[in-house]
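User: Is it possible to get a 3D structure for a protein together with its bound compound? The compound here is flavin-adenine dinucleotide. I've pasted both below.
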Amino acid sequence: MVKHYDIIAFGTGSSLNIVSELLNLGRPIKVAVIENDMIGGICLTRGCIPSKMLLYPAITVRRILESRRLGIEANISQINFEEIMSRTYNSIASESREIEESLVKHPYVDLYKGNGTFVGEYTVDVNGKEIEGDIILLCTGSKPYIPPIDGLDEVEYLTNDNFFRDLRQLPRKFVIIGGGYIAVELGFFMAMMGSKVTIIGRRPRIMHNEEPEISELFQRDLSKYMKLLINHEAIEVRKKGEKIIVTAENKETKDNVEVEADKILIATGRASNSDITRPEKTGVRINEKGWILTDKYLQTSKQDIWACGDANGIHMYKHKANYESQILFYNAFLNRKVAVTYHAVPHAIFTEPEIASVGMKEKEAAEKYDILVGYYKYENTAMGEAMMVKDYFAKVIVDRETYRILGAHIVGPEASILIQEIVSLMYTNDMSAIPIFRGMHIHPAMSEVVERAFYNLREP
Ligand SMILES: Cc1cc2nc3c(=O)[nH]c(=O)nc-3n(C[C@H](O)[C@H](O)[C@H](O)COP(=O)(O)OP(=O)(O)OC[C@H]3O[C@@H](n4cnc5c(N)ncnc54)[C@H](O)[C@@H]3O)c2cc1C
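Assistant: Yes, that's possible. Here is the predicted structure of the complex:
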């Protein structure tokens, strides 16, 4: 018999934000939660949290390695890689267990562990059991995109799905295929732990979505610690004894290079989970890549089926998924009509240096507005001088007439924190930069780099 629920929620990341808000309303509802992996979603179990737990020791290593410039002679006598990896995994595993226990114990919730697949309009099959829901939440996240590289299916490779769970011994040579933020963050971590890291990226720059001057500086900086084989396409992977040989083709010259690895990581982007979920079977429209299409209220093309987070393929960050889960809750359960806006979705890359960015890049802003651009270097602030950092900077872009903030991009220590005052202003009615000029900035804090970038607004 098909079991009936008021709500079926796919995924245990941002969908649980919605489920817990609903349960807090105190109504006696029946909720089915479906998850085919560790409970807690990607961010907790194989994304943001474990990666940042690893990056903190990595940043510490870089600071120690470079402490000589501050007059400190320091040596790192040992790095306990196994301990760092196990501590990280144990921490997330224990949090995941706690979430699972609370779901299992809750009288209004049934947890289904397995793949949920639509078999009818509002009917889903999990492990041969059929359940139906009045309202269905598709917070199905994303998974690693595996590129069609010759020989890849014949070798063992890591993705973010098994990196944190399985890697316990430091590989001597580590090759990463992909040049986005997952590649760069995990590559930086491995390099700081002592692996010889090569990143193979097909674009002319790593982090090619960032402002060109930011990704160029970042590339130059990181290449002190790892090899960045940019503008190269990985075309073949094969085993050679205990090693893996990756062949990459130079996209310009068509020359091939071979790189030897003890372990390889695939970080070539994210793919949709619609191949498992099959939302199209019930009339939910998806695009050619399987990402779920919704209106601005996050309702899919099917009545009472809603989607949020990575599942829609837009700005795949946890804070965006959290934001959308809140909007989805308002619209689906409180009869509100709140539209999502994406004008200021920030993001950060948590290496040393960090990159942080929000809003438009200069090129896009200049096409749409008459703009002013302000730059300021960390080293020209007192704190930057104290840190003896070089070349890192903040860049801000405003509309010339109104001083409306259009975008900001920072590369340097703590960029993710520095950008937040700009992000918050971009959520005011007029998005004006004026409060930056009016508000005192603590002297001599690093935030002066942001203040002074605004003081330096000029013709682009
Ligand atoms: C290595 C890495 C680092 C990251 N770092 C950051 C960061 O620093 N900051 C940041 O903002 N973002 C980061 N992200 C992105 C962030 O993790 C995601 O944007 C966020 O977790 C998406 O949340 P969600 O609620 O959409 O999906 P989640 O709930 O997290 O995932 C959906 C879950 O549903 C499961 N599922 C899907 N389909 C089905 C089905 N049919 N049946 C059963 N289960 C199903 C999936 O397996 C998955 O467990 C990172 C991602 C990765 C991979």
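The chain has a mean pLDDT of 97. The CA atoms of residues 360 and 407 lie 5 Å apart.
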